[in-house]
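Archive entry. Fields below.
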Amino acid sequence: NAGVTQTPKFQVLKTGQSMTLQCAQDMNHNSMYWYRQDPGMGLRLIYYSASEGTTDKGEVPNGYNVSRLNKREFSLRLESAAPSQTSVYFCASRKNTGTTAFEQYFGPGTRLTVT
Amino acid sequence: AQSVTQLDSHVSVSEGTPVLLRCNYSSSYSPSLFWYVQHPNKGLQLLLKYTSAATLVKGINGFEAEFKKSETSFHLTKPSAHMSDAAEYFCVGVTGGTALIFGKGTTLSVSS
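PREDICTED_STRUCTURE:
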């Protein structure tokens, strides 16, 4: 049981390049989330998927797109990277039901630098 | 909508002394509140959660938090700090029934 996995762990992009961050969970969770973490800002929600086949914008969606490929996988795409997207990106998943309904489980993060 | 405010960006303690990390919340309804911890270059780990049951919540590694509705607070405490407690701590609420809303974090430093 690996929990939430993210690839890659590190990435350096040039301005204007595109890339996709991958996330997968093996806990059969319904909801999945993408956050970015910047110094002094806490984590801010980019996009989320409440269930397979649905996606919704969070607090900071501009410059990003997402795909909920299936129940396990939720990817985040940067179409044209900008230096302002330099950040640490975390994927998380949530069960939705039972006494642990609000708990989210986080991946190890992807550290992205855009030059 | 719910919001959380962490009152200190940085707290420094000596090993063996008590830890207090402060968090206030605002919510028009009974909130769900969490504390998460992030060790350097690591992901986030759930320390404890409050979901309208007992107001004193015990978590992992000796941490606990007390929900005080009259003060709209959910402060995190530990009787005796350990060097391994040095990390960043986030007070977290729930918004819209789905996503988490994070405080800006408190960095805890522990000196020997």
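CURATOR_NOTE: Chain A touches chain B through 25 residues (CB under 8 Å).
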